[in-house]
Specification:
The structure holds three protein chains of three kinds. By secondary structure, chain B is mainly α. Chain B has eleven helices and two strands. The N and C termini of chain B lie far apart (44 Å). Helix content of chain C is 76%, strand content 1%. The chains are: A alpha/beta, B mainly alpha, C mainly alpha. Bound molecules: adenosine-5'-triphosphate (ATP) and magnesium ion. Adenosine-5'-triphosphate (ATP) binds next to helix 1 of chain A.
Chain lengths: 238, 292, 359
């Protein structure tokens, strides 16, 4: 099986000094990969570089073998990449319905976009009840549903999620994790999941990646990581 | 009483024009967080182009179309060539660049057409209908109302009912998120400038025949009135711009009717001061915006 | 305890000493400037002397505006209008007092400064509560409306024709054939040098440091105990006084005032002058003032050399400086991505001429 996403020697940053150093990462179709690490490790920067918001200074990013570095940010959705940014990126001035429709505007298959929209409303009941509410009236959990739902409308192949659990109750986190696993199982979607909530992330992930100071320090089966005490103490702090 | 009625209608007609012009300022403010101080000069430039074509072809409406299309192109050009490259770390930078544009545009107009007033005809009669001895509205006033209402309605439709409008709003509110969702944010910005400038050109075509005529500086005072209207409305709000425009139009009409036309600019300045100091958020905007 | 007590007084004299030192330095520079102007005024032909005088008058305004916009970060598009206030005040005072000797001019100039300062205080009070485009819009409105006021009141201001200003000839003590333009240059530069001396010391004072502190970070300045609003109003008042003086001098030089002499474009020119001069330095204000006089004159002689009809030449002459100023303004703003504040980095000499401040 060839990798869906292949990252080699990736270096990137915001100014003179790079934040990411020489990152290697390979993700296969249908995998859930959890990226973990302390605050400031560079997890968000990694996702932003993958989706083109941050320009890499060197290294390779390939999706299905094709170079991704020259793809414009606004073309990423068309390549099958959905990025749910840190803090969710709900456009608070727009209504729930507008936010969701925004997720499908780029699609040429309007019928399927509409079908996907209906599916999202079915999947997330609370959103259906708040269609006309502006984004800023939503609770944290509802915003997360909105952000996830909006990404799903594009029927992505690769979903980049930046700390979906942030600020949510444990029960909601568990629901979201279960949802991600179900989605992967039913659609074959690949997920790159950045999480501080290591336990939850590893509970659904196939592979765990630990980052520290802009480098990948460990990459292993999630099952192994769950039981590796030394590693947990060293990098993950529990 | 008759005079009051006449002045009210006159004020509404002026107000419609200020509303349109204020709307063009609000459009750019919402899209780019820039108050386009060059809007007046840009509108005059397209009006010159329009009247040149009208004179050459003998068709006012061809000239009118040229002015509007010219507005679209000029707005897009200004955004693509100049405004896109302004560093927005200080809000002063955009203002200074826009003022530079004012100088350039007025200078170029002066070189081509000279600095005298040129007559600018109206497409409809400006003689008011007299109903029961009271002068009410002219055909031109009706045209102004129709044009402005049509533009406002079109803009409302565009922003609330179409995919492009949704993209434009999203791009303005959250550029990065919009790009991740496949929105061409730069393109939306250009489109926003183009639309705004076209609306400004329309306002110019509607106001210039009622003033002294075409002149490179013809819109300076109109700009101040429209800016006041936009600020009264809160600068962030399209409805606010329309309401602000009507308020300013009525004020100008009453003041020039009862106190003399030359006092009118002072009344605008006073209104602007009062609103800025007394009601910092405007009637429809948030106070927060003022510190931006 | 004793240690502290000894230290505290010891520190004050050093700072005072520094201030005194810079005062002497500024005085010396001013004297040097006076000598240079004196020499120039004898070397130059009358027309050039008139231009020299105009530079001096503009310098008052650009220097004040530099303090306001460059050091305090408040953009004003209304200083052309403030000049008009000064000019009209001078004209009216001078015409009341005319013929009673040279002293009347001093009184009239002072009156112009006082009235403009008062107007500036009103605008400044409003300005201190506004930021960015709102402040720009309000001052723009002032710039557009004030000339309209002058046009409005026929009886006082004689509408669009304006007023003529009767200025006495140079004192007889200078000789019968003393050129009038040289006298004008002396008058204007006396005002300019006093303004510069005043501003240079002001910028070096505690108030000057407060100005930049407020510009750089209002919240931090407030935490440091600076009264932000008062600092901003004071900056406006100071720059308005300078604009009043400049306007008064312009009125003296041209011996007339009219609304047409103070259009919106004048305010934009002033802004351009300080932006190009390197915002925030008084030396930059000088270059800006020179540019305001030299550029139109150059384009004038340039259009004269073109082989075009008189009408075309006239159009070019009036508008070419505008176009050049506008293009320069845009290019400068785009080419220096840090905006106006970063300009100084690109002017190697500017550092020496600048009052010291953090980047
Ligand atoms: N826009 C930016 N400009 C400059 N430096 C930045 C920027 N964003 C992040 N950084 C720096 O890059 C480094 C990595 O930041 P990043 O946001 O990728 O960390 P993270 O692993 O996502 O942290 P967290 O868990 O807190 O979200 C940090 O040192 C941060 O200070
Ligand atoms: Mg992060």
């Amino acid at each position: 099986m060839t990798a869906l996403l292949e990252v080699k020697g990736l270096t990137a940053g915001y100014g003179a000094a790079p934040v990411l150093h020489d990152i290697d990462l390979s993700i296969e179709q249908g995998q859930i990969v959890a990226v973990m690490g302390a605050n400031g490790a560079g997890k968000t920067t990694l996702l932003r570089t993958l989706s083109g918001l941050v320009k890499p200074t060197s290294g390779e990013i390939r999706l299905d073998g094709a170079d991704l570095r020259t793809t414009k940010v606004e073309q990423m959705v068309r390549r099958g990449i959905a990025h749910v940014p840190e803090g969710r990126g709900v456009v608070t001035e727009l209504t729930v319905d507008e936010n969701l429709r925004l997720g499908g505007l780029w699609r040429s298959d309007k019928a399927d976009a509409r079908k996907a929209l209906d599916e999202v409303y079915e999947l997330f009941e609370p959103l259906a009840r708040r269609k006309r509410h502006p984004g800023h009236q939503l609770s944290g959990g509802e915003r997360q549903m909105l952000a996830l739902g909006r990404a799903l409308i594009g029927r992505p192949r690769l979903m980049l999620l930046d700390e979906p659990s942030l600020g949510l109750a444990p029960r909601v986190i568990a629901q979201i994790m279960a949802l991600l696993r179900d989605l992967r199982n039913s659609t074959g979607m690949t997920v790159l999941l950045v999480e501080q909530n290591v336990r939850s992330a590893l509970s659904i992930a196939d592979i765990g990646v630990v980052m520290s100071l802009g480098r990948v320090v460990t990459r292993n089966d999630a099952a192994t990581l769950r039981t590796d005490d030394e590693l947990r103490h060293a990098y993950l702090g529990f | 009483m008759d005079r009051f009625i006449f002045l009210t209608f006159d004020g509404l007609s002026r107000g419609a024009v200020y509303a349109a012009f204020a709307l063009s300022l609000v459009l750019i403010w919402r899209a780019a967080r820039i108050v386009n101080f060059a809007q007046g000069a840009m509108a005059v430039a397209t009006a010159y182009a329009g009247y040149s074509v009208a004179t050459a072809t003998g068709s006012y409406w061809l000239g009118f179309a040229v002015a509007l299309v010219g507005g679209l192109l000029l707005g897009a050009g200004v955004e693509r060539v100049v405004m896109r490259f302004v560093d927005h770390s200080s809000p002063l930078n955009g203002v200074v660049v826009a003022l530079g544009l004012v100088l350039v545009i007025q200078a170029v107009l002066g070189m081509i057409y000279g600095n005298e007033f040129r007559p600018a005809g109206a497409p409809f009669s400006r003689d008011a209908f007299v109903v029961g001895g009271v002068a009410l509205l002219s055909r031109f006033d009706l045209w102004v109302f129709a044009a402005v209402i049509a533009v406002v309605a079109l803009l409302v439709l565009l922003f609330t009912r179409t995919a492009v409008g949704l993209r434009m709003r999203a791009a303005a509110f959250a550029p990065d998120v919009s790009r991740l969702l496949g929105v061409n944010v730069g393109g939306m910005l250009t489109l926003g400038w183009a639309l705004a400038a076209a609306v400004g050109s329309l306002a110019g075509m509607l106001v210039i025949p009622t003033e002294l005529g075409l002149h490179p500086n013809a819109m300076d005072i109109v700009f101040v009135s429209a800016f006041t209207a936009a600020v009264v409305g809160g600068l962030d709000s399209a409805i606010g711009a329309v309401v602000g425009g009507v308020i300013v139009g009525l004020l100008l009409s009453y003041v020039s009717g009862y106190l003399g036309a030359t006092v009118a600019p002072i009344a605008v300045l006073v209104l602007l001061l009062v609103v800025l100091l007394g009601r910092p958020g405007g009637l429809f905007g948030s106070v927060k915006a003022r510190a931006a | 305890m004793t240690d502290l007590r000894e230290r505290a007084p010891a520190k004050v004299p050093t700072e005072k000493g520094k201030n005194a030192l810079s005062l002497y330095r500024h005085l010396a520079l001013m004297l040097l400037g006076a000598v240079v102007i004196l020499a120039l005024s004898y070397a130059l032909p009358p027309f050039r002397n008139y231009q020299l005088a105009t530079v001096g008058a503009y310098l008052c305004v650009t220097a004040g505006l530099t303090v306001l916009t460059g050091l305090n970060g408040q953009l004003s598009l209304g200083h052309g209008a403030l000049m008009a206030v000064g000019a009209y005040t001078l004209a009216m005072t001078q015409n009341k007092l005319a013929g009673q000797g040279q002293w009347t001019l001093l009184v009239a100039v002072l009156a112009a400064i006082v009235v403009t300062t008062a107007v500036g205080a009103v605008v400044g009070l409003a300005a201190a509560r506004l930021r960015g485009p709102y402040l720009a819009g309000l001052t723009l409105a002032v710039a557009v409306v004030v000339p309209a006021i002058a046009s409005t009141f026929d009886t006082t201001f004689n509408s669009d024709q304006g007023l003529s200003v009767s200025v006495d000839p140079p004192p007889l003590a200078l000789g019968y054939d003393f050129p009038y333009e040289r006298w004008q240059a002396w008058l204007a530069w006396a005002g300019a040098l006093v303004t510069l001396l005043f501003l240079a010391n002001l910028v070096r004072s505690r108030f000057g440091r407060n100005l930049t502190a407020v510009r750089d970070d209002e919240a931090a300045a407030r935490l440091a105990g600076i009264n932000v609003a008062r600092t901003q109003v004071m900056a406006f008042v100071v720059s308005a006084a300078c604009a009043g003086l400049g306007g008064a001098l312009i009125a003296v030089l041209s011996q007339s005032v009219s609304p047409g002499a103070f259009p919106l474009t004048l305010s934009l020119f002033l802004l351009m002058a300080i932006v190009i001069g390197g915002l925030g330095s008084l030396a930059g204000a000088l270059w800006g003032a020179v540019l305001l006089v030299v550029l139109p004159a150059t384009t004038h002689s340039l259009t004269d050399s073109f082989d075009v009809s008189a009408a075309v030449a006239q159009r070019l002459e009036g508008n070419l400086p505008l176009a050049i100023f506008g293009v320069v303004l845009i290019v400068v703003m785009l080419a220096f991505p840090g905006g106006i504040a970063s300009l100084k980095k690109f002017l190697p000499n500017a550092k020496k001429l600048l009052p010291k401040r953090k980047a």
